[in-house]
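Entry 14. Ran structure prediction on the chain below.
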Amino acid sequence: MADLRLIDGSGTEISYILQKAETRTFRSTLPTSIINRGIDPGRFEQIVCDVGKRVQVSNQVVLYTQTTNFVRKTDVGGSADGKNWIIIRSNAYIFDQRYQGRELHNLVVSYPDSTYRYLKIMVWFDGGAVRSVTLRRMPRLLIFSGSPGERHRLFFGNAEGEPRNYDLG
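Output, structure tokens:
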């Protein structure tokens, strides 16, 4: 886009400033309670959490287990009422691998920003059990960013401004 002009209803050009939105990151931990846990033998272990009545955005859970040397598929479901569930993240993997003195592990499951009050974390057994999975904490990472061609703020009506060309690509 070589030139962008704003024209009012009478055909007069309006001065404006196009400002790129800055990326901002917020980190916090949500208070969460486990309200249910269970095992469907041979299939999965699940934890149901209550994020609270107040609408809050969440986007990841950190799990904890004493089990070692495993790789397990994990799904996260969300519900507004604790009865009707929708999968908000499927086929995420948690793991703990130890080999020749090296330890690799990931017990964090990320999912799209969600305001569901209830979350259900399902850890699939896939032929082996991960014993005693629990929720360690529910951190959240909120990122607000501006991208070329997308999220920009447009300020107009500035009599002191002059028309400008902006390269957004």
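DSSP finds no helices and 14 strands in the chain. Will compare against last week's run tomorrow.
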